[in-house]
Amino acid sequence: MKSFVSCILVFAVLQQQLTDLLPGSASKKTILPAGNIFIITIDGFRWQEIFTGADPALISNEKYTPDTATMKMLYGSPDMEGRRKQLLPFFWNVIAAKGQLYGNRLYDNKVNTSNIYSISYPGYNEIFTGNTDVTISSNEKNVNYNTNILEYLNSKEQFRGKVAAFTSWDVFPYILNKERSHIILNSGYENRKDDNESAAQQLITKVEDEAVYDKTATRHDELTFLTAKEYIQQYQPKVVYLGLGETDEAAHNSRYDIYLEKAAEADRMIARLWHWVQTTPGYKDNTTFIITTDHGRGKKTGNWSGHGAFINGSSQTWLAVIGPNINPVGEVKEDQQIYQKQLAQTIAALVGEKFVSDQPVAAAVSLK
Ligand SMILES: [Zn+2]
User: Fold this and answer.
1) Distance 124 CA to ligand 1 centre (A)
2) Nearest Cα to Cα of residue 264 among 28, 40, 45
3) What is the CATH number of domain 2-350?
């Protein structure tokens, strides 16, 4: 076992050095910044559903989709373009028209994790710190000592006290080192401690405390979203992170129907947030959304519900971006390789900063 683990470590280090040397990882163009950035993640949501919609085999399979008839009527359009639009109308009506979508492997446009584990904590570490860390190999609640982009931005005068994160999964206080980073962070079923709590936030807290009987490590995404939206309306942060988690939960429970419903709800939440941003002074035409996932999942009908180092497809992810200075090229259909660790520097560049950390930070994605 020990030699096996060290073999994995050597492989990971080699892979990392190799990807650092790839010419495509260098930023060629300067990204024009906007004043605000919203980072949104949909946990363990596959590129396959983003680009091709509901999988016809999985929505016809009673094992994963108990009521196949309803799911087919909702999401089972005969063509791929129709299916993806049924499932994710914000992605395919708005982002496809005004933003950019990366990761459609049918065109060899690829987004991958650099970390070899393809599970959540290593993925979020990679997204936010701009590098992999082979010692982060589990989802256990261990404090992350790597510097993340959110705390880096919070250390800058322009963004100080204006960085806020809301996550469904309760491991984020460790991933983002809440104690050290001093960002506003609300995770899982933790109550928002706020002396100036709005009436709506009081109601959300009451629902969480008194009406959710099945509290798990992942709060209902709708409650995470409403908490985030209340905070944003009340305090106008410049950097927002919204971490949604129920897609992964549904997949692990082998429920493809619920996985689709949670993805459709996430699409709707992002649409509501974008609409709010585009109708609010200070945010309107001054806010970029960057949307991604922490890992992929199995590619096949038999293993889509799982993910990890030994499940083929788990390192395959995707990336969407929309904002005032983002070229509206829509779905990118050319041969390209993007790595998850490039996102931290991309986030920095989208608000006109350069992320400097104790460890090397991968170059920003060269956006079209
Ligand atoms: Zn998972």
Assistant:
1) 12
2) 45
3) 3.40.720.10
